[in-house]
């Protein structure tokens, strides 16, 4: 394995263009460089019927199961890794059995062609399905924090919370989107727990 001019190991599958690696995409953390590739294959289909169907189903199922079991004295948490492992054979099965017939979308939707089965199940579909499941898993905590607050107000304080007040709890997602530039996109911001999932994809 080669090193760059700083003596750092190059990421697996890194492609040098004119001998220079893109510093913006290269993480300064060695574990990340060795686990996460910085290359992309733009020919792989992403927004497929398989991705949407498995992804939405996994998100709904994870949300229901984790919220349902969160009311137990000893909550049962179904993790995102479960969907990550289970969706791989399901995706390959759908790639084998779905028809490859091509359809034409109406002009108001762009008029492009699409198919229920654009080809083999690929890593991009698998990653997006896992992101859907992670949203249903409340990003690692099982049930949504906001629902816990609503439950406490009703169960312990015998008060009703208005729909508008409950809706304001969604502002956290807005803040998460605003902070993405500072806590997600920089190469030096890394989340060690996600490296396990990335390794499993590869």
From TrEMBL:
Where, per UniProt, does this protein localize? Membrane
**TM segments?**
49-69, 76-95, 127-149, 161-179
The yes or no answer to whether the keyword Membrane is present is: yes
Query: What InterPro entries is this protein classified in?
Result: Oligpept_transpt, OPT
GO biological process terms held by the UniProt record: protein transport
Q: Which GO terms describe its molecular function?
A: oligopeptide transmembrane transporter activity
Q: Cellular component GO terms, alphabetically? A: membrane
Keywords from UniProt, A to Z, are:
Membrane, Peptide transport, Protein transport, Transmembrane, Transmembrane helix, Transport
Membrane topology type: Multi-pass membrane protein
User: What Pfam families does this protein map onto?
Assistant: OPT (PF03169)
PANTHER family named in the record: ISP4 LIKE PROTEIN
Protein family (similarity comment): Belongs to the oligopeptide OPT transporter (TC 2.A.67.1) family.
Name the chain's protein.
Oligopeptide transporter 4
Source organism (scientific name): Miscanthus lutarioriparius
What is the organism lineage in this UniProt record? Eukaryota, Viridiplantae, Streptophyta, Embryophyta, Tracheophyta
